[in-house]
């Protein structure tokens, strides 16, 4: 009979504090929350800001290297879901229902996501829109006080990370040309104070995107500018507290403007991506190094056919290991297009999920970051 391999097990008391820390920083959030109950020392360690920051940096790196894709979304009645897609599987196999925070009565709507934190707004009859920042992994949220300006139901919301001040900031800005203010408001989770900033150059922007795309830990939108024919990618830089236009591939912009095409932006493993749909083709671009114009690379050009148009006309949300493209379809939720085989299929069985209108998938990973302390 073959002997079983001997496993070396060290008693916990034989491990020094640095070794325990190195082990624990590699563990998932769910395990760490349980380990808080082991001892006061472990509870203190897991709550330390430098441990949370180290765990977050590791989670960001792993999210870029993971083979699968994790998304969070809401159904028509506001219920939250988290789904995982791994190549060769169905996304509904990893579907998890997330219990929403117990807050005020009304419809909670996801506006933005950054480092595992979700920015939600509450829409209630005859009340101004209010907001909160929520970490569903640790079940903590913080109430955002109402902005000083008047209620604006068409305003866009976003959230980004201030790397200089180690702070998370919420931004609310007008989305329509007719808004005369041309100003936005910024709320700091650290200081709990709103401040007013100007749009760049005093431009009038029109932003039709309801939810921004997070890349480089900051929110991005597609925007049109009054008096200009083209569209731009607008980013809110949380560190500088200002809006900046992000460089985009000239070929993509000119082709889309010339043919009255559609532009989507998306985030894949932390990189900013863009898809343009014009005439009978969809082009998919990826910025390999954020902020470097020369790093834009065209990955695919997909010819629109009757069997794939239901998916490829919508926003990409991921690229698999084999090079297939995941698309966010408003009714089917998640569709896949095999570039080599040139076929498309649905990867999600919606089952009891109540769909209707636009279902938007948001890339997501869990973190220990508390909205109450803004680590």
Furnish the topology, listing elements before pairings.
Layout: H1 17-24, H2 29-35, H3 40-47, H4 49-65, E1 69-74, E2 80-85, E3 96-98, E4 107-114, E5 117-123, E6 130-135, E7 140-144, E8 156-162, E9 167-173, E10 183-188, E11 194-198, E12 205-207, E13 213-215, E14 218-225, E15 231-237, E16 242-246, H5 250-258, E17 262-268, E18 271-278, E19 281-287, E20 296-303, H6 309-312, E21 315-319, E22 325-329, E23 333-338, E24 343-346, E25 362-363
Molecular structure report:
- This protein is 14% helix and 38% strand.
- The strands form 6 sheets. Strands 12, 13, 14, 15 and 16 form a 5-stranded antiparallel sheet that branches. It has a 4-stranded antiparallel sheet with strand order 3-2-1-25, with no helix packed on it.
- The mean pLDDT is 80.
- The chain has 375 residues and is mainly β.
- It is globular and about 65 Å long.
- The termini are far apart.
- The protein has helices spanning 17-24, 29-35, 40-47, 49-65, 250-258, 309-312, and strands at residues 69-74, 80-85, 96-98, 107-114, 117-123, 130-135, 140-144, 156-162, 167-173, 183-188, 194-198, 205-207, 213-215, 218-225, 231-237, 242-246, 262-268, 271-278, 281-287, 296-303, 315-319, 325-329, 333-338, 343-346, 362-363.
- The longest helix is centred in the first third of the chain and has 17 residues, at 49-65.
Uncertain regions: pLDDT < 50 for 5+ in a row? none
Strand content: 35-45%
Q: Looking at the chains present, what oligomeric state does this protein adopt?
A: single chain
Global mean pLDDT: 80
Please give the count of helices: 6
Which structural category fits the helices and strands?
mainly beta
Q: Indicate the overall shape.
A: globular
Count of individual beta strands = 25
């Amino acid at each position: 009979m073959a002997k079983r391999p001997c496993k070396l097990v060290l008693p916990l008391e034989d491990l020094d504090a640095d070794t325990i820390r190195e082990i624990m920083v590699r563990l998932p959030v769910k395990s760490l929350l349980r380990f808080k109950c082991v001892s006061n020392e472990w509870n203190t360690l897991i709550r330390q800001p430098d441990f949370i920051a180290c765990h977050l940096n590791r989670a960001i790196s792993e999210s870029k290297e993971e083979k699968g894709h994790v998304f969070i979304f809401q159904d028509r009645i506001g219920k939250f879901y988290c789904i995982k897609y791994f190549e060769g599987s169905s996304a509904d196999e990893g579907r998890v229902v997330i219990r929403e925070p117990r807050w005020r009565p009304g419809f909670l709507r996801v506006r933005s996501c950054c480092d595992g934190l979700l920015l939600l707004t509450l829409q209630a009859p005859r009340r101004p829109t209010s907001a909160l920042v929520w970490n569903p992994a640790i079940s903590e949220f913080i109430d955002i006080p109402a902005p000083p300006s008047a209620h604006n139901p068409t305003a866009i919301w976003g959230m980004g990370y201030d790397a200089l001040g180690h702070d998370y900031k919420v931004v609310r800005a007008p989305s329509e040309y007719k808004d005369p203010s041309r100003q936005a408001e910024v709320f700091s989770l650290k200081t709990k104070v709103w401040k007013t900033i100007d749009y760049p150059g005093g431009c009038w922007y029109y932003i039709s995107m309801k939810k921004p795309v997070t890349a480089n830990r900051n929110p991005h939108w597609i925007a049109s500018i009054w008096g200009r024919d083209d569209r731009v990618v607008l980013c809110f830089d949380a560190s500088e507290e200002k809006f900046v236009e992000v460089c985009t591939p000239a070929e993509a912009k000119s082709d889309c403007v010339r043919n009255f095409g559609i532009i989507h932006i998306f985030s894949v493993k932390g990189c900013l991506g863009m898809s343009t749909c014009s005439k009978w083709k969809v082009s998919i671009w990826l910025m390999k190094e954020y902020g470097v114009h020369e790093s834009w690379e065209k990955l695919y050009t997909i010819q629109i056919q009757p069997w794939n148009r239901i998916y490829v006309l919508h926003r990409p949300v991921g690229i698999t290991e084999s090079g297939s493209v995941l698309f966010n379809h408003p009714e089917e939720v998640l569709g896949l297009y095999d570039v080599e085989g040139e076929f498309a299929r649905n990867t999600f069985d919606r089952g009891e999920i109540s769909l209707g209108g636009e279902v938007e998938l948001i890339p997501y990973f869990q973190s220990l970051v508390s909205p109450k302390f803004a680590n």
